[in-house]
């Protein structure tokens, strides 16, 4: 059996197209049910366009990566380096904005490697916590709990178009 080798490639303008394609596909595979008539375009237009990526890439507080498994792009990662949460200031807290992995690569340990990668970066930056928002329904919650995150609060998907019964999220924190 071939070992699953995972790499994280910093996004460049040359890799925008594959980031957009994989990010959009992975998002829709996991979250299309949140949207009336399966129309996720408000989220896609706010997350996966060249203009959005260019703006995010120019932000020193944002890191964007393509996730590669055995040299194939299988997901995307977005991190906000300094993002205050509760009593933790920007210097102490790192926020995981996006981890989207294509369905066919879910359950293969890639998500765990993503969290290890982010944890290493956070420790290098002397952060005290990593935090994120996770849907209250769905498999991501169990995954984060299994990987050392704890529920610390409630939130809602910020898009008013999302179905009301699907908007609830947990704020999850992992102390370092």
Model description:
The protein has 176 residues and is of the alpha+beta class. The chain has one domain (6-175): 3-Layer(aba) Sandwich (Aminopeptidase). It has five helices and seven strands. It has helices at residues 16-31, 41-47, 50-58, 110-124, 139-146, and strands at 6-10, 62-69, 72-80, 93-101, 129-135, 150-156, 168-175. Strands 1-2-3-4-5-7-6 form a seven-stranded mixed β-sheet, sandwiched between helices. Strand 4 (93-101), helix 4 (110-124) and strand 5 form a beta-alpha-beta unit.
Strand order, sheet with most strands: 1-2-3-4-5-7-6
Helix count?
5
Number of E-state strands: 7
**Computed Rg:** 16 Å
In CATH terms, the superfamily is: Gcn5-related N-acetyltransferase (GNAT)
How many domains? The number is: 1
Distance between the termini: 33 Å
Largest sheet: 7 strands, mixed
- Looking at the structure, what is the overall shape? globular
Structure, briefly:
With 176 residues, this protein is of the alpha+beta class. It has helices at residues 16-31, 41-47, 50-58, 110-124, 139-146; strands at residues 6-10, 62-69, 72-80, 93-101, 129-135, 150-156, 168-175.
Question: How is the secondary structure organized here?
Answer:
Blueprint: E1 6-10, H1 16-31, H2 41-47, H3 50-58, E2 62-69, E3 72-80, E4 93-101, H4 110-124, E5 129-135, H5 139-146, E6 150-156, E7 168-175
Parallel strand pairs: 4-5
Antiparallel strand pairs: 1-2, 2-3, 3-4, 5-7, 6-7
